[in-house]
Specification:
Blueprint: E1 5-10, H1 14-24, H2 26-33, E2 48-52, H3 59-72, E3 76-79, H4 95-102, H5 114-128, E4 133-136, E5 144-148, E6 155-159, E7 170-173, H6 175-179, H7 183-193, H8 217-226, H9 228-237, E8 239-240, E9 247-248, H10 256-259, H11 262-282, H12 288-301, H13 307-310
Parallel strand pairs: 1-2, 1-4, 2-3, 4-7
Antiparallel strand pairs: 5-6, 8-9
Helix pairs in contact: 1-7, 8-9
This protein binds iron/sulfur cluster.
Length: 311
């Protein structure tokens, strides 16, 4: 039987990155975080680090992966979906563009998430093959919600579920849940290790494609302000049928051209500020950015986000 492989898949976000740092030297971090009395966890010396690259990631994500590689002292393998080479004279297509064509030009959406399946999960599963694998996933101990068992009326905490591979040779484990690490611990690991947080965190809370349809309106505004070229590219994917009026847009409610109107941007910013203000008042001892992330995380907890893209 083949040797068990240990794999940490990065999304380019904070949780999967903190997980790799934690597993690199668990005892150091347990001491620093005051997590004593846990079952021994040897350092993950033979881990394979991977990142599923859609070809439509932010430059900040690639920079962050470089920082992580420097810290871990090991390469992060960039996995890309296998797509045929472009014809002579044609520009190279990203894996996303290749699949968009195969899916008849239909943009992915929360209900038709072919992008995660074809650009993230499939390359990951192809890379693994049939070998026995332990896949380490960075869902935190504080991600989820309290529920009541209808039979016993007992309260229990339901951890967030992931959009993860279900291949029988892959065993998924959740070290942060097992060891009780919460969001504050993740920030501590990132800050104390010197790796820090991804640069896009000043305006966007999630990793993944620049046009990800899970983005909040305020994050689209952030994209427009920080990467106007990418915003324009995202706009070019949108189509409105001139005859039927049928809309193929990233968001059902409005197109990116509509969202980019100055009065609309001003409205989105005003609403974001009001929401932050409300949150600040209700949770005075939590930083503003963490509150913002909390709110986004709430959306992800509802099943909107996906681990392999956003953790
Ligand atoms: S980041 Fe968003 S758009 Fe990209 S693959 Fe994941 S769900 Fe799809």
């Amino acid at each position: 039987m083949s040797k068990v492989r240990h794999i940490v898949a990065f999304s380019g976000g904070k949780d999967s990155s903190a997980l790799a740092i934690y597993l690199h030297d668990p005892e150091r971090w347990r001491r620093a975080l005051g997590k004593q009395g846990l079952p021994p966890r040897p350092p993950l010396e033979e881990a394979e680090y991977v990142f599923c690259d859609t070809g439509t990631e932010l430059a900040e994500t690639y920079d962050y992966l470089d920082r992580l590689e420097a810290y871990l002292g090991r390469p992060i393998q960039r996995l890309r979906a296998n797509v045929p080479p472009s014809k002579p004279g044609e520009p190279d297509k990203t894996p996303f563009d290749h699949y968009l064509e195969l899916y008849g030009g239909f943009l992915p959406s929360p209900n038709m998430r072919w992008c995660t399946r074809m650009l993230k999960l499939k390359p990951f599963e192809d890379y693994i093959g049939d070998d026995p694998v332990i896949s380490y996933v960075g869902i935190r101990a504080d991600e989820g919600e309290w529920r009541v068992d209808p039979e016993t009326q007992r309260k229990y905490f339901q951890h967030r579920k992931g959009y993860i591979s279900t291949k029988p040779n892959i065993k998924t484990v959740f070290p942060f849940i097992e060891d009780g690490l919460v969001k504050a611990d993740i920030y501590r690991i990132l800050d104390d290790s010197g790796v820090g947080r991804p640069d896009y965190y000043t305006w966007r809370s999630r990793s993944g494609c620049y046009f990800c349809f899970f983005q909040r309106k305020s994050e689209w505004v952030g994209l427009l302000e920080h990467h106007p070229d990418l915003y324009k590219r995202a706009m070019e994917y949108e189509k409105i049928d001139p005859e039927t009026g049928e809309r193929f847009t990233w968001s059902d409610a409005e197109s990116l051209a509509e969202l980019a109107r100055p009065e609309r941007i001003a409205e989105i910013k005003r609403r974001t500020k009001e929401r932050e203000e409300r949150l600040r008042k209700s949770r005075a001892n939590v930083t503003l950015m963490e509150q913002f992330f909390d709110e986004v995380r709430d959306l992800e907890d509802s099943g909107a986000g996906c681990n392999i893209c956003h953790l």
